[in-house]
């Protein structure tokens, strides 16, 4: 390959300088790791409550939000190392860690690769990967296929029945509308998004979960169609002494379906201090 051909690839790779991050509140550090395609602001509903007790640290994945352009391909190991870079930049030796969806996969790798950095762990609406993964139902798989050909706005609207519970859709649709408005304001590099999808698909921590020794709480919506609850149950069975909390009537975005879950998570973290 000629030098002229290589140069643009090197410039793209070198453009990524690490994740942008923010902090709010005082107290023990709590690192929040967002879901697929979401930036640190996706925790807008939860940050105020957590910040009453903790120093809440959020960050934007590579290629998302305020973080710069990123290499096209990455793994959950890479994203876990990004999380460690954020802790380093924030001057935090060890932290409480809460990962949601893809963020839960990243949190698993963080706890396995850098165990001294994790005081306690909450894994929300996530899976361990590998052959034991329970896939979404056929209707949700069909949506995921169609969504690739939709605009971002159309895909977000079409996702509603697949990521929110029926009760929230019927009784508190304004919460869903607020979520969609937040997402409309988000910057996302399409190449980075494809890289994050690949990282989620390739994630496989199941065989190593038994090595996680941080106190762990697994949280999952009873009606999660995107990542069925069987995956959360499997994680809770495999991590030693992990607790499992299933949220009735909640889908994948359980914190929108049932915001009171943040209080349960805060109490768990307080117990772990």
TrEMBL record:
<protein>
    <submittedName>
        <fullName>Alpha/beta hydrolase</fullName>
    </submittedName>
</protein>
<dbReference type="GO" id="GO:0046503">
    <property type="term" value="P:glycerolipid catabolic process"/>
</dbReference>
<feature type="domain" description="AB hydrolase-1">
    <location>
        <begin position="28"/>
        <end position="253"/>
    </location>
</feature>
<keyword id="KW-0378">Hydrolase</keyword>
<dbReference type="InterPro" id="IPR050471">
    <property type="entry name" value="AB_hydrolase"/>
</dbReference>
<dbReference type="Pfam" id="PF00561">
    <property type="entry name" value="Abhydrolase_1"/>
</dbReference>
<dbReference type="GO" id="GO:0004806">
    <property type="term" value="F:triacylglycerol lipase activity"/>
</dbReference>
<dbReference type="InterPro" id="IPR029058">
    <property type="entry name" value="AB_hydrolase_fold"/>
</dbReference>
<dbReference type="InterPro" id="IPR000073">
    <property type="entry name" value="AB_hydrolase_1"/>
</dbReference>
